[in-house]
Amino acid sequence: MFESARLPQKMTKKTFKKMEPEIREALLSAQLPVVEKQSFSTLILVDGLDGAGKGEAVARLYGWMDARHLVCNAYGEPMDEARLRPPLWRYWRDLPAKGETAIVFGSWYQSILRDLIYKKIDEDAFEKALVRIRRFEEMLSNEDVLILKFWFYLPKKEQEKRLSSIPKKHAARHVLADWAALKHHKKASEAGEKIILETSKGYAPWFVIPSQDPEYRDVALAQTVARSMKLKIEDGEPRSVAAPPVVGGLTRETAVDTIDLTESLEKAEYVEQRERYQKILSELSDRKAMTKTGVVLVFQGNDAAGKGGAIRRVIRPLDPRIYKVHPISAPTDEEKARPYLWRFWRRLPRKGHFAIFDRSWYERVLVERVEGFAGHEDWLRAYNEINEFEQELTDFGFIVCKFWLAISEDEQLRRFKAREDTAYKQHKITDEDWRNRLKWDQYAIAAGDMVDRTSTHYAPWTLVSSEDKRHARVKVLKTICERLEDRLEA
């Protein structure tokens, strides 16, 4: 996770100054109807790594909203009064009334995160705490509390740079604590990923905010709060928006946007590398250790990006008895009558075999999201359901390789026209393909959110430039070989 948050999202001070009045207007136009109607209360959790500017962002938010109906609750180590009560007591005590908004520093997540890092609790206790938190947040949501959770992400180098600008001997106590936390950046990031994966629900989603640029960070926070409150007041549902695609009039760059589409291979080099990795794949698939694992390959990407061609190069060196290719199209009536993951569970391989999905369960957060076949709550909760599904597969010993094949809009048009002009390729192009092309930007946003929310350490996405098909096919083969080697030689 955090792929897009690692990118240097930036906003000039000039743009920020120009947009600031609009941001304040959006926040007030969302907040004041809530105050008037008193139909729900709002909790804004500000969490993340030390040094990411959480205090600065909240200070700006205070300046933009009506502070009379806004309170900030900050929590550190529990005092005697709180120690004598269950851990969630102090958060229950300070819940805002309907119509009011509370900003929470040092939330129920921060306390268990610090306890884990400093070994006051073990992994089992951490897991149990996350279960309690999920129940707590679901109950609050059912009782008309809008929960907005923000994780401020900061790369380690940037964190160290910020903290080093403050001389330790002059630093306040909280800054010294930040310096101590810097040593645990990796563990804190991994624990943060786990928190987000396991507790980002439709009723209480997480929003990961890149915090390298203060103006971008603060506008992203404010716009998400405003849009979420507006949605809630309009339809009454305990829901919020996905990460904002546009911040302050600037397009939000995602990991998918950064794929280098100029990568290519000359034909001779392609043939040499393709044959090399096909030979390696054949040998790996014949190893005795393969009987202890199964392989699930997922191919997604832009229409006409070459998924089929890449799959054909993967299966060529494999024994046909140990793989099955599953082309996924619209669900049948039988499949619609069941939970959406049902049809994929039925197609899983047994150990020693490969299941290859030409499109997959990710259609839930791509086509079904963009085309409106799945409701907002349905596709938003699907990120977690998919992560849990893939974790169950990897915990069982499966390898899950996921590929996003990317091409440019111009290249897609060229390939569409070539398919129409070639008799044996005409079946590959449909009216639906042309309709989907009209929503290129919406699909790009959905793909970026998909990678951000479902690229995990146990099932990471591999982003593949497919403008040059030769390059794409070799990268896919190489990645599968590397993942298999890592597992079989462990």
Automatic annotation (TrEMBL):
Q: Give one Pfam hit by family name.
A: PPK2
Reactions catalysed according to its record: [phosphate](n) + ATP = [phosphate](n+1) + ADP
In this chain the Polyphosphate kinase-2-related domain maps to 21-231, 265-487
Q: Where is the signal peptide?
A: none
- UniProtKB keywords: ATP synthesis
- Name recorded for this polypeptide: Polyphosphate:AMP phosphotransferase
Q: Which gene underlies this protein? A: pap
